[in-house]
Write a structure and sequence with these properties.
With 336 residues, the protein is of the alpha+beta class. Helix content is 62%, strand content 10%. It contains ten helices and four strands, in the order βααααααααββαβα. The chain has a four-stranded mixed β-sheet. A hairpin with a 2-residue loop joins strand 2 and strand 3. The two termini are 27 Å apart.
Length: 336
């Protein structure tokens, strides 16, 4: 079996759509971090003045989101560490690990706390003070979160495939940062609307039950988003294959030269968002010399990296196709 790895990191600046890269969405993360820190401070102040439980839930939510963005930045930095003898394929999956931690934080700190606070408010209702302040803070927060979401959508539009929905992008992206920020910002905006409804209805009717119900709704929303994040990130941690389009391009690149007759079977796996492992058994002519086979493998590796730049580690095993041998099943398999 012939093996080849990319020793130069010059290709790391190339982020293709199958990786969901674009710098790991750093711009979107920084925009969300700046917005959430400012929003969290404003919400805490509004809670201290008004006593609205939905404001406290939203403040904790923004604080959790701020911590999550810091975790994403840390994961991106740690993933850039050079490979070691104990970790020969590098640390690209650190980005997946930290994204999974984000889901846990969002579930526990954000969702469960909000549900607890909402139930407590329903059991022990307290009158709101100066609700107009809470409403003003929520309106400003909606504006800031809209800016953060707009930035995330702009970053996403630069890498998602034409005609691909945002939900499909979240499901199929191999880089976790943009899906995380998209889900967090969408949940934040929805939560702000729920908080605004809760505080507004409590102010209009004088019944603080609406504030408690709004807080519980925010908690349930965050738990649902955390569940989606956990499921998607768990799939990435287990190791997802290249996208169907990338697999088709790899097979086409392998068979484009004279020395490779066909691909007998192939397996791919993301070592990180921008690092792809390719292992394939390729059919060569039975009368080829060893030198000709080695040359064909080298040329095939060059073609694969040209077609899919994130293919950093490539293992090719030459063989002779026998009758009844199956086709490269992964190349035609649906996305994971």
């Amino acid at each position: 079996m012939s093996e080849s790895t990319a020793t130069s990191q010059s290709g790391s600046a190339e982020h293709s759509t199958e990786s969901g890269g674009h710098g790991g969405g750093t711009t979107a993360i920084l925009a969300a971090l700046a917005a959430n820190i400012g929003i969290a401070i404003a919400k805490f102040v509004a809670f201290l003045i008004t006593g609205a439980s939905s404001m406290l839930a939203e403040a904790i939510h923004s604080l959790a989101d701020s911590g999550n963005q810091v975790l994403l930045l840390i994961g991106g930095k740690r993933a850039k560490r050079a490979a070691t003898p104990d970790h020969p394929f590098g640390f690209g999956r650190d980005r997946y690990i930290y994204s999974f931690i984000v889901a846990i934080v969002l579930f526990s700190v954000g969702g469960l706390f909000a549900i607890y606070e909402g139930v407590h408010k329903l059991q022990h209702p307290e009158e709101l003070e100066s609700p107009i302040i809470a409403i003003g803070v929520l309106v400003i927060a909606i504006g800031l979160e809209s800016f953060s979401l707009r930035t995330a959508m702009k970053e996403t539009n630069a890498v998602r495939a034409p005609g691909e929905s945002y939900w499909a992008f979240i499901r199929h992206a191999r880089a976790p940062e943009l899906p995380v920020v998209l889900l967090e910002d969408t949940a934040a905006l929805t939560g702000l609307v729920l908080a605004l409804l809760g505080v507004g209805l409590s102010s209009i009717t004088g019944n603080v039950v609406f504030d408690g119900l709004g807080t519980v709704a925010i908690g349930l929303l965050l738990v649902a988003v955390a569940f989606v994040l956990a499921v998607e990130t768990k799939s990435l941690l287990l190791g997802e294959s290249a996208t169907p389009d990338a697999r088709r391009r790899i097979v086409a690149a392998l068979t484009a030269g004279d020395g490779v007759e066909s691909v007998i079977h192939m397996r791919t796996q993301h070592l990180g968002p921008e690092e792809l492992l390719v292992a394939a058994k390729i059919a060569v002519r039975h009368d080829e010399t060893a030198a000709a086979v080695a040359r064909a493998i080298d040329e095939a590796e060059v073609r694969v990296r040209a077609a899919v730049p994130i293919a950093r580690v490539i293992y090719l095993e030459p063989d002779i196709r026998r009758s009844g041998t199956t086709a490269p099943d992964e190349a035609i398999a649906p996305a994971g």
